[in-house]
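> example.struct
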């Protein structure tokens, strides 16, 4: 498994994009995508030689991250990419990690399955097995060796 992106909860996704572009030099890589299952709006940001950032904004007051965003938001999850989501989820479950969300289509990943588990130390982990990102504006620039 390798880290695909870092998920950050924000109150306002457009202000979050502007902040990450101005302060850290990231560029908006995708359009904002509504994820109806998780009740969030997400956007991917990219910077050469760095990890992708996914900003996450609650789409309404029933979103699971709504209260967190009202407290200022912050680190929500690390996302790991693996070769086979179902096999990896089984291995992690056998190692005692708790599944928070079983595999389900993720709109931000062109409806490829995503899953979430809890990995201790207060860390939520998203698991994917695809490179796809919905509604790309910029191609992914590989890291330099």
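> example.seq
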């Amino acid at each position: 498994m390798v880290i695909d992106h870092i998920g950050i909860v924000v109150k306002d996704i457009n202000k979050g994009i502007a902040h990450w572009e101005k302060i850290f030099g990231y560029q908006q890589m995708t359009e904002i995508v509504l994820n109806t299952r998780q009740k969030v709006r997400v956007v991917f940001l990219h910077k050469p030689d760095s990890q992708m950032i996914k900003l996450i904004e609650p789409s309404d007051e029933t979103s699971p991250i709504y209260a967190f965003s009202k407290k200022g938001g912050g680190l929500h999850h690390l996302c790991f990419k693996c070769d086979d989501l179902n096999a990896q989820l089984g291995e992690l479950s056998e190692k005692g990690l708790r599944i928070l969300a079983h595999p389900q289509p993720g709109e931000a990943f062109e409806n490829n399955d995503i899953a979430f588990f809890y990995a201790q130390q207060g860390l939520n982990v998203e698991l994917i097995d695809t490179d796809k990102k919905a509604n790309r504006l910029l191609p992914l620039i590989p890291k330099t060796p």
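> remarks
The radius of gyration is 15 Å.
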